[in-house]
From TrEMBL:
Presence of the UniProt keyword Cell cycle in the record: no
Superkingdom of the source species: Bacteria
An example molecular function term from Gene Ontology annotations: hydrolase activity
Domain CinA C-terminal, first and last residues per copy: 4-154
Pfam families given in the database record: CinA
SUPFAM superfamilies (alphabetical): CinA-like
Organism, scientific name: Methylococcus geothermalis
Protein name: Nicotinamide-nucleotide amidohydrolase family protein
Length: 160
């Protein structure tokens, strides 16, 4: 996980780009990983931890009707989170995550382990992807962080 953050830092720092994170179920873990990399102040702008629906709306500008219609754990919500993070930062690359880490909170349509991620470059559309991770709460969150970092590397290097 931390090696991925290091690779991301080399990529972003080498291109003079800055990152913003918008996290729900990971609770700031992505930001913690990237700030563990020496020199991250040169490429990490800020992180938003928006655990409640209200914070997604207030801090990131996610429209209430998006959450009401699609739910907090959806492609539409994470795309809005990523766009909002870019709009409320000096970054040009964003990642957003929302999911159901468990052990409760799942449903037949969105079981525990369901995580949506969005990656977005300034001026481009968000790329979203749904994951279904296995394991306990910590395992789901860890896998989400890894997927977020891998996706950032892909999107920021132009391979996705």
């Amino acid at each position: 996980m931390y090696d991925l953050a290091g690779r991301l830092g080399e990529l972003l720092g080498g291109e003079g780009r800055r990152l913003v994170t918008a996290e729900s179920c990971t609770g700031g873990w992505i930001a913690q990983c990237v700030t563990s990399v020496p020199g991250s102040s040169g490429w990490f702008d800020r992180g938003f931890v928006t655990y409640s629906n209200e914070s997604k709306q207030e801090l990131l500008g996610v429209p209430p009707d998006v959450i009401a219609r699609y739910g907090a754990v959806s492609a539409e919500t994470v795309a809005a989170m990523a766009g909002g993070a870019l709009a409320h930062s000096r970054a040009d690359c964003a990642v957003a995550v929302s999911g159901i880490a468990g052990p409760e909170g799942g449903s037949p349509d969105k079981p525990v382990g369901t995580v949506w991620l969005a990656w977005q470059l300034k001026g481009a559309m968000a790329v979203t992807r749904r994951f279904r991770f296995d394991g306990d709460r910590q395992a789901v969150r860890r896998q989400a962080v890894i997927a977020a970092l891998e996706g950032l590397i892909d999107v920021c290097s132009g391979t996705d």
